[in-house]
Amino acid sequence: MATATRTAQRTAKAKEEALYDWEGKDKKGKIIRGEMRAGGEAVVQATLRRQGVMVSKIKKRKLARGKRITQKDITLFTRQLATMMKSGVPLLQAFDITIKGASNPSLGRLLNDVRNDVETGSNLSQAFRKHPVHFDQLFCNLVAAGEQAGILDTLLDRLATYKEKMLAIKSKIKSALFYPASVIVVAGIVISVMMLFVIPEFKNVFTSFGADLPGPTLVVIAMSDFMVANWYIVFGAIGAAVVALSMAYKRSEKAQNTMDKLILQFPVIGDVVRKATIARWTRTLSTMFMAGVPLVEALDSVGGASGNHVYRQATKQIQADVSTGTSLTIAMQGAKVFPTMVVQMVSIGEESGQLDGMLSKVADFFEQEVDDAVAGLSQLLEPMIMVFLGVVIGGLIVAMYLPIFKIGQVV
User: Fold this and answer.
1) What global pTM score does this model have?
2) How many whole angstroms separate alpha carbon 395 and alpha carbon 193?
3) 183 with 290, same domain?
4) Domain closes at, from 15, 37, 60
5) Is residue 66 part of a domain?
6) pLDDT digits (tens, 9 = 90+) for 361-378
7) H helices then E strands: how many in the chain?
8) Cα gap 97→308, rounded to integer Å
9) Is the residue at 170 inside a domain?
10) Is there a single domain that holds both residue 16 and residue 141?
11) What is the pLDDT of residue 202?
């Protein structure tokens, strides 16, 4: 009972602590400044007085609201923590340094909460598990494995490397898709402007001619009339469709499976997404297995880290098969979502007792494949986009100029 009371008191004290900037004079009268984490201004003043400092100013540091915490922030923090711990810096001091250097105040507050939990007796993995939005199951499991084995610094280093590689893959996929997506959006805006404002002006001019208009021109004018009369319905329907698809993807497992399956079947882009997914899947399993996490337990984190619902479902089936004694190779063959080369490499890894090394080699191979595919995709998409713009926007322009060409021939 007494132990529980002391723990509760320590927890309350840690939660109340804040960071204070202070200024004062030392015993020689020299002005000195610093900062201190404490439970109040009185604590700061008493502590400094015992150190022989005559305090003249104490101010509580206010943290700005900050922006949303991204995976890039967590990755940078993991690398910093791993580097400091490998250099022999104590855990709490490493947290203090990281908190002070955090450019995002929201991250600073998050890390301060984790630090306070550790200071009051929680394990680092337990402190991280209280924030599942930012520290997923894989992250917490690897930290827990490092704590149990006494190699936390090594596991943090591997975890930082893993997160850096995952960020790099996501960045490459986004960069590959950004250009075509942005061109399509701009093309949509241009077409909308033409339909709502430009083509109606051409229609007024053509009406004054009193002549029959070519078929393509009549079709475009009819589309423009519909857009002008129902623009709020058209844009509303598009917005509603986007919101509905987004919500369905987040809430419906069936919708996730259908959309992710369609993405994998897209020409060119689907191949890049598949390679990136396999690279994430094998890299995650390699990292977990290398950390000494049991295979069945490691597969819990692997499916979610793959980033694709098709592979997430396949991983659940693989986990169920492995838990009943089936080898990983046979279970992956049964899933039918992995290329033959991946299954063969896993088979060699199981037979040689070097599964983590083989998985790492597969991840390296597919990460390089993603690099090459993204480079090729950029070169391939550019002419395709030019053809798309030429056909759509050029077709609209030609359709509106056909009557003018016809009049010119008559004249």
Assistant:
1) 0.69
2) 15
3) yes
4) 60
5) no
6) 999 999 888 888 877 776
7) 17, 3
8) 37
9) no
10) no
11) 84
Amino acid at 183: V
Give the three-class secondary structure for 160.
helix
For the record, the structure tokens of 164 come out as: 């850096």
SS3 state of residue 68? coil
Residue type for position 398? V
> What strand order describes the sheet that includes 18-25?
31-38, 18-25, 54-60
| Other beta carbons less than 10 A from residue 101's beta carbon | 11
Q: Which residues contact 159 (CB under 8 A, 6 or more apart)?
A: 78, 82, 139, 142, 143, 287
Structural domain count of the chain: 3
Residues spanned by the domain of 138: 71-164
Q: Hey, what are 344's tokens?
A: 């063969």
Task: Specify whether 156 is located in the same domain as 199.
Answer: no
Same domain for 184 and 238? Answer: yes
- Backbone conformation region of residue 64, classed left if phi is above 0, alpha if psi is from -120 to 50, else beta: beta
**H or E segment to which residue 281 belongs:** helix 269-290
**Is residue 303 a part of any domain in this protein?**
yes
Please list, in sequence order, all residues whose beta carbon lies within 8 angstroms of the beta carbon of residue 248, skipping any fewer than 6 positions away. Answer: 255
Task: Classify 22 as helix, strand or coil.
Answer: strand
